[in-house]
Structure prediction request, 196 residues.
Amino acid sequence: MTDRGVIVEAAAGDARDAALSTITLGFASDPFMRWLWPDGETYLKAMQSFIPAYGGKAFGEGTAIATTGCHAAALWLPPGVEADDEAMEEIILGTIDPGIGEAMGAVMEEAEHYHPDEPIWYLTMIAADPAHINRGLGGALMRHMLERIDAAGETAYLESSNPKNISLYQRHGFEIVAEISHGGSPVLTPMIRRGR
Prediction:
């Protein structure tokens, strides 16, 4: 599908690894992720397991999408498909500095409180390669899936780990539900977009 000159398609087959690399690059300066893993080597190793646990099921559902050249990618979990919370918790608690373990546990617990019980489309991760930001790629990815979600009158949800991205989500109809921070953690912002 073409969106204002940007082609968006399923990240399938060979594009899977490229999408995972793009997301890893895109989150390399994310405040929350780098609070978890401030050391570059630890960050890169942890993300190899974390991304598939968090949003990897999108590849099997056909809801992992990317722009041409995989310069930007997004992982959406459709209603009824859940992240592997147990694996994520194991990865996080097994790789972070134990000094932030209690704060991270509190963040995870509060985030779970705000996660809707109703069926939702869950945007687990969206990112652009830093060499390709400010080209409208994130907006194209959002519009691509939101058209499908709106056609079904369904609800979308995400948790923003970077305040710089809040305005992008708001432009696409997401509303802030809460701001979560514990023990000096960066803010995690749950956001929801009700069916249209």
